[in-house]
Structure formats: C-alpha cells, structure tokens
Amino acid sequence: MKLLESDRTMSEGRFAHAMLREIYEQPDALARTMEQYVAAGHINSKSLTDAAECFRRHKDLVIAASGSSRHAGLAAEIMLEDAASLAVDVEYASEYITRSTNTKRDPAVLVISQSGETADTLAALREANQRRHPTLAVTNVENSSMASEAEIYLPTSAGVERAIPATKSFTAQLLVLRLLSLEAADARGTMDAKEMERQLAELWEIPPAIERQLDGWRAVTERLAAKYNSAKTLLYLGRGIHYAIAREGALKLKESSYMHAEGYPAGELKHGPNALVSDEVPIVALGTVDWQDAESVLRYEKTVALMSDLKAQGARTIVLTNAGDDKLRSVASDVIEVEPANEYLLPITEVVPLQMFAYYMALENGVDVDRPRNLVKAVVQE
Predict the structure, then answer these.
(1) Which of 117, 130, 269, 333 has the fewest CB atoms within 10 Å, i.e. the most exposed one?
(2) Residue 105: its pLDDT value, please?
C-alpha cells in the first residue's frame, strides 16, 4: 500500500500547533507501520514471529506501561486474550518493580513506551530481565534503551512526535499490538489462515478511513469544545476494549486543557459516579458497535439503555456513535460519528476525535497545547 500523502499533512502552515499536525499525520504513521510488518497480505516480520513463539511457550503475559502507553496496554489485554487465549495482566510500570519476587508465575513481560526511556517502564523492563522473564518492548525510538535491552523489539514507526500529548504514537501502538495479537493467535492455533487474511485486510482499511474523517471530526469537535468548555469535570465512559479509550480520552483532556476528567467502565456509572453528573459535569460515552460481533452488540444495547436513563436524568452527553446511528442520536445531547469497523480496530479510529476534542478544549482555555505545564515528553526520572 502506498503511503498516504495528503497536502494537509505535509504542510506545516495549516496547523497552529504540533499536536493538531500530528493528529493529521496519523493516516501516514499507521500506513507506514503496516508496511513495516505486513507484505503481500501476510505478516512478514521476524520480531512478530519471535514474539508469537514466546507466547507459544508462555501463555501468561504481564504488560507494564505508564500514561497513554498503559491505556494501549489495556486495549492490548483484550486483543490478546480474545484472539490468542493468553492470560494478560496490565500493571502500572511504577508498581511492577514493587511486586513480590516470590510469585510462582513465569510470565513474559511486555513494556510499552513512546520514547523507550520512560524511567518507571525502563525500570520494569530491567527488573523483568533480572527475573529472567522473556521481555518484549513496543517503542517509537529504535535506538532507545528499551529497544536495545528487551529480547524482542517491536517498533511503531510513528515518526518524531513533538507535542507532549501523545497522538500518532498512541494509535501506532494500538496497531502494533493488534498485529501482535493476530500473530499470537496464529502461533497458538486460535485463528485460521482465512480469518487472518480478513483481519489484515481490515487493518489496511484503517489509515484511509481516518483520512476521510479528519476534517469532519475537526469541525464537530471545535464546535463541541465551544459548547462544553465551561464544564468543571467530564466523565468518559466505555465498555470492553473501549474502556481503554475512555481512559485515554480523559487523560488527553486533562493534560491538554487542564480540565478535570475521569474514565470509567460505563457499567460503573451508577455505582457512585452518577452522583457527580449535572449540567457542569457532562458525559462523553463511547457507543460505537461492530454489528458482526455479538458481544459488541450486547455492550451497545447496554450503552443505549444507559444513555436513555441519563437523558431522563437531564444529563448533557456527547456520544461517539457509528455513522447514521439514529438510536443513540435520539438519546444523546450531541454525537460524534465514526465509520463502522471491526470491534478491535474501532479504538484506533474513535480515539482520534477525542484527541481533537482535547485539542480544541485546550484552545478554549488558552493553554499552550504543545507544552502543557508540569509535563515533559518523556518522564526519564521517577
């Protein structure tokens, strides 16, 4: 597949900030990453093959990461468990090294970091190496410490990311982790060749799908930011794999705009957080659905019921929906439409309008979005 070369992504003059430019660079970053791992309709990567062989021997996996990378790990947990029947735990990297060394488990350990130098995550990798666990690293920097110290290195090929809030590096992580889950499924005999071919074909469709939707998302999120900028707190809700994206959307809002936000599993709202919901505390809910996936449909139906209850409660809600979803539109205050996709690929697309929403909320609050206070691109000291 030829890399997407839109004039807008190549022209720095169109973007006032690196964050917005890097949001628009995501189709190219994803296509470039796909080309690194997939050729002629097949995964063609020694690093993925080595990783899959590791998972053939170790069905137990610990993922250690921080910040946005940990949210990618939460999505990967579901991808790997569902596709390859692995048992996956996701740890905060800062907590991993304080866990008992007396555990009887012998997991593989996967670390995820944009820079490959994140202090907590690098410490987790070194601890895993010391414990003689097989180690893997997903990072965007090929000459980083993690890339050289892990036994298996899986690059993301997102390109240099200058803005502190992660955008293209995050979606590239999701893509690599999905490819990892597919190769692991093949190695563990949980996916046949025909299904693998179908899944890879759907992955190739993601970069142009995002490209098609960027300008529409930009217009909608700029309008919504002007409408919701007076909120004191926003609650982000998601079910299943979309919970990871709810967490990421909330983090993007916090670090970009200095507004408070929290991500919750949608089913947990009525177990306490609903007490916060008011005109000043709106909801952002992920309501996309894969109609070919029965569990996705069940989650969708539960989300529709919850949004109906919130409408009766008088809540203000922004809901990410499939394009043309009149059912959710009828119970939401506002919607952001996303083209339909595979359940495990929807996170790669649906996070992009949440990145844009955070960007425009930052502008509404007068924040230097590329350099938010108290934050650095890579946390290299604990």
Answers:
(1) 130
(2) 78
**Mean of the per-residue pLDDT values for the chain?**
92
| Average pLDDT value for residue range 238-266 | 97
Q: Return the structure tokens found at 83.
A: 């596709």
Q: According to CATH, where is 3.40.50.10490 located in the chain? A: 7-204, 209-364
What fold characterizes domain 7-204?
Rossmann fold (3.40.50)
Strand partners, 337: 321
The 10s digit of each residue's pLDDT in 31-79 is 999 999 999 889 999 999 999 999 999 889 999 999 999 999 999 999 9
How many residues are present in the chain? Answer: 382
Can you tell me which residue has the tokens 């137990």? 60
Separation CA 272–CA 234 (nearest Å): 15
Quickly count: other Cβ atoms within 10 Å of residue 215's Cβ.
11
Task: Give 124-175 pLDDT, tens digit per residue.
Answer: 999 999 999 999 999 999 999 999 999 999 999 999 999 989 999 999 999 9
| Res. 106 pLDDT band, cuts 50 70 90 | confident
Sign of CA dihedral 288, 289, 290, 296: positive
Amino acid 86: pLDDT: 95
From residue 6, alpha-carbon distances to 3, 9, 21, 203, 316 in Å are 9, 6, 12, 20, 36
The backbone torsions φ and ψ at residue 111, rounded to the nearest 5 degrees and listed phi first, read -110, 150
What is the dihedral angle through the alpha carbons of 374, 246, 35, 183, rounded to the nearest 10 degrees?
Answer: 120
Is the domain 209-364 a CATH 3.40.1260.10 member? no
> What proportions of the chain, in percent to the nearest 5, are helix, strand and coil?
50, 15, 30
Q: Kind and range of the H or E element at 200?
A: helix 193-204
| DSSP per-residue codes, 42-97 | EE--HHHHHHHHHHHH--EEEEEE-HHHHHHHHHHHHHHHHHH--EEEEEEHHHHT
Predicted pLDDT of residue 202: 97
Which residue, among 22, 75, 14, has the nearest Cα to 358 in the 3D structure? 22
